[in-house]
Amino acid sequence: MSDLAAPQAAPSVDPLSAKARLRGERLAARNALAPDDRIEKSLQLAEHGQAALTVQPGTIVSGFLPIRSEADIRPLLSALRMAGARIAVPVILDKETIVFRELVPGADLMPMGFGTYGPGPEAAVLDPEIMLIPLSAFDAQGQRIGYGGGYYDRAIDRLHRKGRHPALIGIAFDCQEVASVPAEPHDIRLDAILTESGFRPFNS
């Protein structure tokens, strides 16, 4: 009998635990950006977005109003509106669901939970054709880690079941990139990522 021990299988990694660890690490890195640096990077991101994104009059684009240390994409949303796009932002209906309500200049915003604000129930609910998606972490294959609530995953799945396939563009800072996101079968890849370094499409 050989004295060589049989090779042991590599320990399995729980994707949820791995995602939670990466989420915490990358959000900590984003939080560590100095406020002035974050503003500058947000402006660079917006410039790249204006150069990369083409909209037609009436194109529906969902964005978001920044909370905590997120990139501020309001300059980009304003530029897209000037180009003719209709802008929508997510609002939380319940513990499972977000919808995208039209953001009209001058309209009152109301608290939506988790520190977010959005248009009230009188605003039109729109199905985005381009989605600008906040996230915690991403990799070079287009996989993303959200904030853990699954709101965007469910919203995208709902759009797909309606026969709609919006362009999915992640919004992040470069410091949020990781070597590899532990993808699960239900995860939906991004079509592109937009950071202060530029617009990076992913191969299909």
Automatic annotation (TrEMBL):
Substrate binds at L65, E70. Its EC number is 6.3.3.2. The keyword Isomerase does not apply. ATP binds at K19, A20, R21, L22, R23, R144, I145, G146, Y147, G148, G149, G150, Y151, Y152. Keywords: ATP-binding, Ligase, Magnesium, Metal-binding, Nucleotide-binding. GO terms for biological process: folic acid-containing compound biosynthetic process; tetrahydrofolate interconversion. Coiled coil: none annotated. It comes from the Bacteria. Its cofactor is Mg(2+). Pfam families: 5-FTHF_cyc-lig. GO terms for molecular function: 5-formyltetrahydrofolate cyclo-ligase activity; ATP binding; metal ion binding. Signal peptide: none annotated. It catalyses: (6S)-5-formyl-5,6,7,8-tetrahydrofolate + ATP = (6R)-5,10-methenyltetrahydrofolate + ADP + phosphate. Belongs to the 5-formyltetrahydrofolate cyclo-ligase family. This is 5-formyltetrahydrofolate cyclo-ligase. The lineage of its organism: Bacteria, Pseudomonadati, Pseudomonadota, Alphaproteobacteria, Hyphomicrobiales.
